[in-house]
Amino acid sequence: MDALDLAVHQTAHDFGLPELARRMGKGEQVLRNKVNPHSESHVLTLREAIAMVLITGDLRIAVEVAKECGGGFAVAEAMPRDVGVVMAFLASQREHGDVARAVEEALSDGQISPREQVDIQQQISEARKGLDVLDAAVGKAAKTGARVTS
Questions:
Q1: Residue 62 contacts residue 53 (beta carbons within 8 Å)
Q2: Domain boundaries, the chain
Q3: CA gyration radius, the chain
Q4: Interatomic CA distance for residues 56 and 125, integer angstroms
Q5: pTM for the model
Q6: Is 108 helix (H, G, I), strand (E, B) or coil?
Q7: What is the sign, positive or negative, of the torsion defined by CA atoms of 109, 114, 119, 121?
Q8: Which of 12, 64, 132, 137 could lock 7 by a disulfide, CB 3.0 to 4.6 Å apart?
Q9: Cβ pair 89, 134 in contact under 8 A
Q10: Residue 40 CB partners (closer than 8 Å, separation 6+)
Q11: Whole-angstrom distance, CA of residue 77 vs CA of residue 62
């Protein structure tokens, strides 16, 4: 099971497969088979995957598709934009650590492959998004005058 299969499976089950099937106009068992990564007889179509994202509001499928395509286009990450300063700061630092790890792994053999380049650029993009979330949290805290605590 790869990350995309997992995203499809978790999206359906976290939302509630029976309700998702109803909203998609599918039989529950048919959808259950389509989101089962071990089923070869039922395959989820691209339009069905898009419908899942739109109905559930869960972006995990879209994020995994973006990663598979090299991350060359913007996808809103699952991190909420309405988080506090401390949590946003910690998430931002975690993303910066991911950049460092990707660069370190890529340089372990003394060269950067095209795949490693894509991975590093994806991590940089995620770090930028983390900083955007931190920026929004700081702005909100300053505007509201709320006390920021750890």
A1: yes
A2: 3-68, 85-144
A3: 19
A4: 25
A5: 0.51
A6: coil
A7: positive
A8: 64
A9: yes
A10: none
A11: 9
